[in-house]
Write a structure and sequence with these properties.
Strand order of the largest sheet: 1-4-3-2
Helix content: 10-25%
CATH architecture: Roll
Shape: elongated
CATH topology: Thiol Ester Dehydrase, Chain A
Number of domains: 1
Oligomer: single chain
């Protein structure tokens, strides 16, 4: 998620995690490939960044999902 925020900012800016909530929906089977991780910035403000991270199996099934809030320092 930090890399996604940096991409939106077009540079590095110090930040710290304010909130992180993860839901594990199903196990990732041994040898499962590929596993796709997608990080998306939902909102980028002056002091806070909100994001969504998803882990999907090759068949498209969602294995885990997280929401994040970062304070931009």
């Amino acid at each position: 998620m930090v890399l996604a925020v940096m991409s939106k900012l077009r540079s590095f800016r110090p930040m710290t995690t304010v909130q992180l909530q993860t839901s594990f929906l199903r196990p990732v089977p041994k040898g499962a490939e590929p596993v796709r991780i997608t990080a998306r910035v939902l909102r980028l403000g002056k002091t806070l960044a909100f994001g969504d991270i998803r882990m999907q199996l090759a068949d498209g099934a969602l294995a885990a999902q997280a929401t994040t809030t970062y304070a931009l320092l």
